[in-house]
Amino acid sequence: MRLNPAEQKAFYEEVGRRIRSARLRRKPVLTQEDLGKEVGLTRTSITNVEKGRQKVPIHTLVELANVLRTDLSTLLPLTEPLALAHSLQGRPKIEKDWILNAVAAAGQTKGMK
What we know:
Order of helices and strands: HHHHHHH
Helix content: 55-70%
Distance between the termini: 34 Å
CATH class: Mainly Alpha
CATH superfamily: lambda repressor-like DNA-binding domains
Radius of gyration: 14 Å
CATH topology: 434 Repressor (Amino-terminal Domain)
């Protein structure tokens, strides 16, 4: 399956949200600058990655996962979240973020029952 440009944009935005979320959950929390130093990127690059404006090579994703102390799969969206993110285009950012965070939280707690 090949992603069209809108799907690619949604994919990288979701990857960026996941990276930011993992960075903020990590204890101690890393700044964008600290995370960048750990993986060989600038703070500006980390900002752009987190906003989905910069594509991330797979080896950098692996390094990010290691530094963030999370599984690589946590940083990669599945088809369903990607489709959801795509379907939310055009909605206010606060609404999109709330829906995506709620879906992500539900997915993390799914196996905990």
